[in-house]
Design a protein that fits this description.
Elements: H1 2-78
């Protein structure tokens, strides 16, 4: 009878080891996916900042051109004789 108890204990230990191994593997997959997500977010942030900076420069240039056109229109409106 002692032998049967030993086998049961060994089976229980084997099941526990298998469960522990599966848990560690699951945690490893989770860690890897979190790392990949973090790397994606870092890359996304860098790309987004670059694109936003480029768009900001273009917007600044358009704003300056608009201001120049507004001055030209107001000058032309104030002095219509310049165009006759």
């Amino acid at each position: 009878m002692a032998r049967a108890g030993g086998i049961t204990n060994a089976v229980n230990v084997g099941i526990a080891v298998q469960a522990d191994w599966e848990n560690r593997e699951f945690i490893s997959h989770i860690s890897l996916n979190v790392r990949r997500l973090f790397e994606f977010l870092v890359q996304f942030e860098a790309t987004t900042k670059s694109k936003l900076a480029s768009l900001n420069e273009k917007l600044d240039m358009l704003e300056r051109r608009l201001e120049l056109l507004e001055v030209q229109v107001s000058t032309a409106s104030a002095n219509p004789s310049l165009f006759t």
